[in-house]
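Table S5 (text form). Sequence records supplied for joint modeling of the two-component complex.
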Amino acid sequence: GDSVTQMEGPVTLSEEACLTINCTYTATGYPSLFWYVQYPGEGLQLLLKATKADDKGSNKGFEATYRKETTSFHLEKGSVQVSDSAVYFCALRPEYGNKLVFGAGTILRVKS
Amino acid sequence: GAGVSQSPRYKVAKRGQDVALRCDPISGHVSLFWYQQALGQGPEFLTYFQNEAQLDKSGLPSDRFFAERPEGSVSTLKIQRTQQEDSAVYLCASSLARVSGRSSYNEQFFGPGTRLTVL
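The corresponding structure-token record, covering 231 residues in total, follows.
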């Protein structure tokens, strides 16, 4: 079945460091891919998305590119801030389907 | 505007009790989803409604779990005879329109969740 694997955390970085959180997926066809973020005490929020191969999603300085050949959707940011501390979830929606399939989440801690 | 709301935010139940969790989706949203998030894990799909029709309940873990959306708006997830393994955060999400195929995507907006602890 469809699945998402993302790097384990926690990831601890200093402010202004570069961030990469790896995400790979298993799915048939062409799923849509997402990154969700959960800030402390808040609900899940969509951070960015890509719906077809080679699309790049971007928001708030974060980027991720849909790589069909490597079945990956790695999250990147060039300079993290303390306010980026949160749990990040990679997810897919199957090509023909509605439900989201999530990875286990990666905790990001940014120190000042 | 108002987002997805869920109540109660926290629920403690004794093993064997029945619980009911409520979800108020964003007004006008056709699709409604329930997910279960165990501690340290990502959310896992439970069930999906399009208006009042429950189109997919493949993720419900047992026949103790039951969901309804009788008027196509508010939804209730009921868990009968709760067990310790039911302890989790239950998330509700809604989206504006029906979703089919890859040609249409509608963002799922999530509520804050109900944290259920079964003692």
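Note: The mean pLDDT of chain A is 95.
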